[in-house]
Design a protein that fits this description.
7-stranded parallel β-sheet; alpha/beta; Alpha/beta knot; single chain; globular; 249 residues; Helicase, Ruva Protein, domain 3
Length: 249
């Protein structure tokens, strides 16, 4: 299946314990036309078991990106959606699979890079990892047994992406308008460091008693999805505020 949209979506597996799940996820991707796989802090890889479970999708395993941490893996992505079934102290924006893949296709059509992140088999993603993401995908499941196998979850979202791309190709709907390039994860990481430093200097943030302030602010700005112009404006505001605070101290 040849379509430029498929080049912009990456499946990211974090801390996968069982190599067979990596192979099964690669197979699930390939059956739906996806081919970009990123592996973060993988326990055992390469692996003969992963290759066997891939069942012909070993080309995806061979070209998979390898990363030590999620923040480095996501540095150049402008839309990051995490899969999670756990309740959190602070709710992140939540999307159904249909909503999430519609957003992914819209952003792929604009030439942006999209990551769909899957956590560890036993514990999912940490709060710190979730803070790198713009939203959470919840796959409807039996409330009495909601835990999905990793490859099954990858299959569901890969299918939804493929289905909607095909529907778009068959329709005559308008192509999304172009927009300013969104700020990627690396830009937002610099912004959050500068924001925290600024708040400390003006006396609004106490690092000894952080509470949930930075997490709430990250949720706010991740939901807003700043573009590069908005990012530059806010960075300029923070720089000016810090200069003023130092002058008055």
């Amino acid at each position: 299946m040849q379509n430029e949209l498929f080049n912009h979506i990456h499946i990211v597996l974090v801390g996968t314990t069982h190599p067979g799940n990596i192979g099964a996820a690669a197979r699930a991707m390939k059956t739906m036309g996806l081919h970009r796989l990123e592996l973060v802090a993988t326990h055992v890889f390469p692996s003969a078991e992963a290759t066997a479970r891939a069942s012909g999708a070993d080309d995806i395993l061979a070209s998979a990106g390898r990363h030590e941490s999620l923040d480095t893996a996501l540095a150049e992505f402008t839309l990051v959606l995490a899969t999670s079934g756990r309740a959190r102290n602070i709710d992140w924006p939540v999307y159904s699979p249909e909503q999430a893949m519609a957003l992914a296709i819209e952003q792929a059509g604009l030439g942006n890079r999209i990551a769909v992140v899957f956590g560890r088999e036993s514990s999912g993603l940490s709060n710190a990892e979730l803070e790198l993401c713009h939203g959470v995908i919840r796959i409807p499941a039996n409330p009495d047994f909601p835990s999905l196998n990793l490859a099954a979850a990858v299959q569901i979202l890969s299918y939804e992406f493929c289905k909607q791309v095909r529907q778009q190709q068959e329709s005559t709907g308008p192509v999304p308008d172009s927009r300013v390039t969104p700020a990627d994860v690396a830009h937002m990481d610099r912004f959050y460091r500068e924001l925290q430093a600024c708040m400390e200097e003006v006396g609004y943030y106490d690092p000894e008693k952080p509470r949930l302030l930075m997490r709430r602010l990250k949720r706010l700005f991740n939901r807003a999805r700043l573009d590069r112009n908005e990012y530059n404006i806010l960075m300029g505001v923070l720089t000016a505020a810090r200069k003023m605070a130092r002058r008055d101290s």
